[in-house]
Structure to design on (678 residues):
């Protein structure tokens, strides 16, 4: 399957993208894109209706790549419709955020590997009890019937309940997805009234989280739920809720439709 | 560090230092027969003392082994204390333990494991979305190796299986708890990388 | 006892840290991870030295632990050396065995034993994968009890030990053979568990 891009150096489309871009070894637009897009689309096809979430993500990426490619082929497309260009930038930022996340975990994986290597050097003692204490160890089969054993097996084969909540505050930031943030903003913005991007992201330290907020706003903008105004480049961005006050339309549904239609346009 | 190792004369002297209290000796004895890390709370119960004192005793013991350059160390792993061989003697242990090294994880498995570790509980769909590839095979491998397990079901309509890391994972990495993972923030690409990526994606140039 | 603690130079010649020679440290490391007593001949082979020197090293170590009033001792049993808990601390070990963790441990042990019984032969890695925790200690306990034994080696590259139940297991439950265990009926285990059982023996992809 063309989808399985795999060499000793990189694996999978994201890695390919990362590799190509960060090394600047290859002209992204001329060499790899069509293969990647084809692979994505083929993969989405094989997935069928298995997982809409994943399919949506892939479609968004594919659409972005096709847009990028077509804009490369038609250098002045930027002079065209402003909405289209905005949409292009939005998808581009989404792709950027995904690449950043992917790279973050690649580096984290390398750190975990180093930890495992270090831990491997030191082996635990598992010798256990000396014989003289063995008689004290409660007999695991005392009073146990074959039926108890069967019950124990079924218990062992049943997924365990969630572990006690661990403190993962240092990773929570990345946890927030664009969709979660969309929902969050959709419920808070109608109440807070007009605000600014700076105010919305005040107190957020992680860059990815700020990007997620930005993408969430673009998502809401696309759905016509907020107005965004920016007087000058790098100026304050004003955010005004213009949607209905109440439950917002499902942006996820619209995103799918938008991604599919732009993918078809790109192919045509 | 305790004073005792620095002045060896004290060992056979009149009053053994605090670390030679019966409590410290009991900790050593129990850890010697334990087959998995022993929680401080359990040691405290056995010794009829407080977990905080157990932590002090263990710290004192660990420091004394280190100061004496013993061939073993006392470490805190997966929520408890246990004896381990000293890392610098790994070559001897490898020769001694048949088929010592556990098989290495592939890059794909490691990356998936990293995402599970930092984002748990997490579904396969979320993993696939981040990695950009199907992760079913990799998740199965991680489950088989015992590093990842089903920890919950998504309460949402799909009831997706959610995965988390196991105590085997903590032991594999020599960590006391998930909180001891290196902060993910440290791996977020710096401005230079972001700029490069951004440039790579710029449509018209 | 030995010269070391009183005049550390004595054991290994002129070097004052002689007892901390790599050889002595290696002996400590190997004995710490060993499950059975280790014969001096094997230690000598690992250290590329003579059994006589190994005996000297072990005697020196044993004496040092005694002089330091450690909670563990180094003893010679069954033709080899091993660490044990100090005899005067047996009361703590007894409390440890009977105490708080025994209920938890026996639940874990029963589940593990059930998996071995129904799915034998099975490797420790498979058991760990299904239970989501390291099972080395539990398997060791079950082995010591005589309910579980090594029955084969995985023919694959890892040569993993495969475990099965013993005749004393069957006797205890009053069964003629494992075929007489109650059938699992319509229970369909989770797909991940099935995959673990079916493919767990294969090495990492």
């Amino acid at each position: 399957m063309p989808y399985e891009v795999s060499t000793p150096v990189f694996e999978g489309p994201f890695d390919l993208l990362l590799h190509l871009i960060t090394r600047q070894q290859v002209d992204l637009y001329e060499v790899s894109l069509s293969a990647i897009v084809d692979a994505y689309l083929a993969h989405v096809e094989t997935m069928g209706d298995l997982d809409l979430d994943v399919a949506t993500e892939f479609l968004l990426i594919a659409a972005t790549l096709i847009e990028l490619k077509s804009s490369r082929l038609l250098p002045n497309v930027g002079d065209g419709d402003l909405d289209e260009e905005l949409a292009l930038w939005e998808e581009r930022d989404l792709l950027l955020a995904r690449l950043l996340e992917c790279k973050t975990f690649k580096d984290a994986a390398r750190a975990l590997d180093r930890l495992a290597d270090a831990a491997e050097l030191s082996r635990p003692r598992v010798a256990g009890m000396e014989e003289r204490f063995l008689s004290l160890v409660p007999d695991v089969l005392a009073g146990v019937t074959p039926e108890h054993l069967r019950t124990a097996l079924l218990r062992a084969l049943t997924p365990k309940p969630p572990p006690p909540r661990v403190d993962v505050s240092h990773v929570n930031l990345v946890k927030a997805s664009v969709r979660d943030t969309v929902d969050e903003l959709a419920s808070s913005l109608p109440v807070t009234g007009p605000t600014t991007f700076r105010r919305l992201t005040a107190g957020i330290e992680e860059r990815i989280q700020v990007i997620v907020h930005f993408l969430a706003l673009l998502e809401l903008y696309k759905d016509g739920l907020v107005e965004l105004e920016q007087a000058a480049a790098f100026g304050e961005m004003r955010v005004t809720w213009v949607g209905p006050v109440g439950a917002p339309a499902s942006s996820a549904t619209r995103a799918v439709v938008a991604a599919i239609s732009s993918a078809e346009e790109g192919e045509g | 560090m305790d004073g005792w190792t620095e002045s060896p004369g004290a060992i056979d002297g009149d009053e053994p230092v605090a670390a030679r209290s019966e409590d410290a000796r009991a900790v050593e004895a129990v850890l010697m027969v334990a087959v998995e890390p022993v929680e401080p709370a359990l040691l405290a119960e056995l010794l009829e003392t407080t977990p905080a004192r157990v932590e002090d005793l263990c710290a004192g013991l660990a420091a004394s082994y280190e100061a004496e350059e013993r061939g073993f160390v006392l470490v805190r792993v997966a929520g408890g204390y246990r004896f381990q061989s000293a890392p610098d003697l790994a070559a001897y242990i490898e020769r001694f333990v048949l088929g010592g090294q556990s098989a290495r994880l592939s890059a794909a498995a490691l990356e998936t494991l990293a995402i599970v570790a930092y984002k748990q509980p997490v579904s396969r769909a979320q993993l696939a979305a981040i990695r950009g590839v199907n992760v079913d095979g990799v998740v199965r491998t991680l489950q088989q190796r015992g590093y990842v397990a089903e920890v919950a079901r998504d309460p949402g309509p799909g009831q997706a299986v959610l995965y988390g890391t196991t105590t085997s994972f903590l032991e594999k990495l020599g960590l006391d708890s998930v909180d001891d993972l290196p902060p993910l923030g440290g791996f977020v690409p710096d401005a230079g990388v972001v700029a490069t990526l951004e440039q790579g994606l710029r449509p018209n140039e």
Notes: The longest strand of chain C covers residues 72-77.
